[in-house]
Specification:
The protein has about 80 residues and is an all-alpha fold. The protein has 3 helices and no strands.
């Protein structure tokens, strides 16, 4: 029995479905809610502290923004 060369009908159908599918809404990506929550928490810390300089608050904001960045970077890597 010989091995068929070229793509299988199933792989052709899957490729066609993927190419013809509508683009998803980026806001529906699971990382969007995570990043939104992190940014809201960072903004809340800033509004509570106000004009006063608080090294602890700045440190916490930095941690939150770094987590948001990492989540977005990982999502971008997964999309490749």
């Amino acid at each position: 029995m010989s091995t068929p060369s070229g793509p299988t009908p199933a792989s052709l159908a899957a490729r066609s479905a993927q190419q013809n599918a509508p683009a998803g809404d980026p806001a529906d990506h699971p990382v969007a809610a995570e990043v939104r929550d992190l940014l809201e928490e960072a903004a809340m810390i800033g509004s509570v502290v106000g004009e006063e300089f608080d090294l602890g608050a700045v440190s916490r904001q930095t941690q939150l923004l770094s987590k948001a960045h990492d989540a977005l970077a990982n999502a971008l890597e997964d999309a490749r």
